[in-house]
User: Fold this.
Amino acid sequence: MRPGRREEWLTSVGIDVGTSTTKMIVSRLRIARMSSTFALPRYAIVERLIQYESPVITTPLIQDQIDELAIGEWVREQYLVANISPQDVMSGAVIFTGESAGKSNAAPFLQQIAEDSGAFVVATAGSDLEAVLAAKGSGAEAYSRESKDIIVNVDIGGGTANAAYCYRGNVIHTVTYHVGGRLIRLEPDGRVQYVASALEPWLRMNAFQLRAGERCTYDDLRAITAALSRSLLSGLSGAQGLPNGGDPAAELLRIGREKSRHKAPPIYTRLMVSGGIGQWFYAKEASPRSLHEVTVHGDMGPLLASALRESCDQMGIITAVPSQTVRATVLGAGMQSTEVSGSTVYVEDDILPLRNVPIIQLPPLDRTRTYEQWMATFGTFFEQAAKWYGGPSDSIASGEQRSQEMGIALPALQHLSYKAFDKLAEQLAAQFRTHCPHVETLVLVCEQDMAKALGHRLRLLLQGHPKLVCIDQIRVTHGDYVDIGLPVQDRAIPVMVKTLAF
Amino acid sequence: MKMTIHLLGRTYQFANLKEIMAKANEEKSGDQLAGIAASDNSERMAAKAALADALLSDIRNEPLLPPEEDEVSRIIESQVNEKIYTEIRNWSVAELREYLLHPKTTQPEIIRMSRGLTSEMIAAVAKLMSNLDLMQAASKIEVLTHCNYTIGQRGVLSGRAQPNHPTDDILGIKAALYEALSYGIGDAVIGINPVIDTTDSVREVMKMTKEVMQKWSIPTQNCVLAHVTTQMRAIKQGAPADMIFQSLAGTEAGNKAFGIHEQLLDEADDLIHRDGTAAGPNLWYFETGQGSELSAEAHYGIDQVTLEARCYGLARKYKPFLVNTVVGFIGPEYLYDNKQVVRAGLEDHFMGKMHLLPMGVDVCYTNHMKADQNDMDNLAVLLAAAGVNYLIGVAMADDCMLNYQSTSFHDIATVRELFGKHPAPDFERWLEDMGLMQNGRLTPLAGDPTLFM
Amino acid sequence: MNDSSTLNWLVDQVMKALEKKVEDRESKPHMIAEAATSYEMLAQSHSGELPSDHSIDEVLPHNIPEPRWAEGMEELLASTPARIGVWRTGTRPLTSTMLALRNAHAAAIDAVFSEVSPDLLQEMNLFTVETHYGDMETFLRRPDKGRRINDEGVALMREKCVHRPQVQIVVADGLSANAIESNIRDVYPSLMNALEVYGLSCGTPFFVRGGRVGCMDHIGEILHPEVLVLLIGERPGLVSSESMSAYMCYRPHAGTVESDRTVISNIHRGGTPPIEAGAHMGTVLYKMLEQQTSGIKLIM
Assistant:
């Protein structure tokens, strides 16, 4: 392995471009050995410090489209203020939250910002990941570690409400709704400027008449925000314990409802609200009493926050105070998006860093089949994988890489004898050679600690083609993308796992 | 000093005090390994006879390891109160034994006399004592120490919660700690032997133990038994440590093998006084054990009982809150079987108490010794009778990190009941508040670690 | 190439994976914590060929009749191999707990007094030399005897072994023959793979009966390897009597100090994974040769 960086501090950035606001943080992550000198080396991120927090700015738009140039310029300015350069940045994530990710120009632009921000910054979007990052950033995950109960963190910004259910320090469920402050934008006089199309089915079902260009009253808006709050809370609670049962309209707001059926969320006992709406939710000031007071930002945000607070009171929902509101997601992105691989790994020279390696997962080894039967499925698996990796670029996240890198996730296997291990390696090598000769780099991500041994065996079996990277103790799933950075302290390899982008 | 002894029709000639001290020991495989043990029982008795007649001044005048050559010897020498020593310098070791066992000799007399004794004199008298002698003499000495809270009272048997984990997993350590607390164990200290020697890891464990103590208002003290230098780095980085730990050997060379020397201990002492989190004045935790000097090839032909006493002479300088001998940890080449472990446990406890140290004992064995859990039961009872300050509490006596067996939470609770002993007073009140103890007995709630979740 | 069936298959895979993830999370939140190794599993003899258990490692059940928080108890049990949640009768443990402890102790003692089977040595193609250990009692009382190979053994080494090899592998029973029986089949081939990948050549491996760690030095004096790795049975604990260590040293010789040895310990299926340990040893040996040192001076 080529010697990597010796420093134990990683600089990481988080950039969060939301529907209404944009912010950035620079953090420093310290990687240290967390293993005995008599054990296999293991490194972990042991300290996370904030080095710089940008002001929260209004996301610059040009006719409902994000102003790429303006954001790019702003990020460059912030790098100057923070006194860092893109070369210093070893990890981090750029996130397009909420509605902004739905904008047509988001994908290539996001990629561009990520690249400009430092070679190792991940571009990402995806409401599950955002929900998880926000729960980390808001402190909900840490809160749940000290509690016996489930806490749900709902990060509400301009366009979406990303909810993550945390239990004993882990996110166990996520769900996202089209609920946000800027879904309805209006003038101080009540003239409606914009109604998000995602909101329309819900408005219709609730018999609200609201169209861009028309006027609405304070009372209209109050009714809408109150109903929206109830729908959200109903969705979050799975309708348990709510008066008059659940709200059927809530399902109309759920993001991804076309792709997956609704699953009852876990029962939570505490609610935490982060994001821009969270800031108002916990504010001491009285609720806005007139359209003038509501529209300080030209949208319904303040009223939505107070309506949500009132709904919580009415429904007897107990709330908890987050440690961060508007910056929760960006903190999560900047400080919590990086993991460290197990330290006994196999990496051939000059391969790292790797970006956007798409992961496909070998089927799990469960009780329904024997080890031999399981390995017998590899043929079909590699055959299909070869088609995918050989396909046109539009099936892969960002256009440029076609089939050069193949990422395979190995499921947990429990204890393997060497004989069983050897059969596994032989089978992997044989099927790979048969079906994927065009793949230049094979990245294996093992859940358990076996990467170095597997790398060695495959290297001997495959004789130098493809190039090999074998890392472990990272959990990835089918459809994830991973970035693998240069080793820190020679052996700790930073890995960023992204769930399905775009 | 008589170097020639006629016994049972044979004549024994000894070259020097070092030889007499070694051969007067009860049988220990470690002395045999070092090639200094008596060759048979008669020779052992001859050596005991010679030692019985030796004067305390003989012992002081013939240092086994001269102070000019060894800093532990210097520390022991510097602690002697010359006035008190002068009063007893012409006593024989036999007379010292009888004085200690005399009913008129009580706590105040022994405390005063202790200041005139060197560690070698204390080792010498131990060699002339039977197991019951060692227990009776030790039971006269009450050593109270205070870190955050006081332990050591007569009628108190404390326990160290030792919730070790093979990878220092924070949750795993907590799990065993909760179990300990639920059995009323942890009043001596919450003390973890870490497997990871890094400052970061040690700091995390210190922080966690302190958080648990604060969350449940537990009247005790914490300690992470890493190397002293690692603890110092963690403390300098702000980690909360009530006391500081180190293993000790009885010679300067032995301590060098442990990576310590007097100056380093002085620095650590200064640091824990300035930056430690406890009230004090007792802010050290020391561990010792017969055989460590031989294993480090730093024994100078001195027997392992005497070397152990010298550890206590060194420990005394730093007024520790806790000292324990890890009696059967080091293996059968030093203590071969149950009989040797029991003897060593009682010797060490007595010698420590004679140094006015707050002695606990890690009643323990490894799996290649001829000993088992029944032998540990026996020794724990003997030590409780002798007034030991604390025992080590490990879940079911099986330490999953250090790979040896000690005494369990159940064992300490049982010994308390058998002897009518209590946890330290503050800790007992806390147990009562938690509903875990009533009238000195565990309540039906005890034994459920989820009480602390 | 990218036909719709492939896409469907892919989508299907993603959905299955996602659904499984969610199900796992929802049905057993307490299993999120890393499952610990159970005593029972460890007590089972190593079955050789295939993974003996594909399920999530089972955790010993607790005996507490009415824990304050049952889910929490599961979380605690999963977090440590320590014997917790055992409950009591009065102040004494329950009978099953007592017997489990005694079982583990019996296994540990038997491991000390057992011998590595000739079949295994033959299978691994290892010839045997002995130290001066004599008998078991002497072996335990006199560690020095286990540090010297006897005259016959020295002659055998001289006759059979490659002299001045780059890497010398030695296997010794130490304090647990079980450790060798359970791990050598997994560690050894993985170590050989690693040596091949690093392009290192290996001398003639053999087995030492009655060996202690210090026998490395004596072997070093006779065969003069550049680096030596000794795979040796550790003092057995109750969690595992199968634990093995690897001691590695650059140019071992009489008078080598302990701090010159690099050690990987706790190698067994519930501790340091044997196959990965073998691979890591290759890296350690490679770095020793590169830096011409070992122990605390070695920069990993």
User: Anything to note?
Assistant: The first strand of chain A starts at residue 9 and ends at 17. Chain A touches chain C through 58 residues (CB under 8 Å).
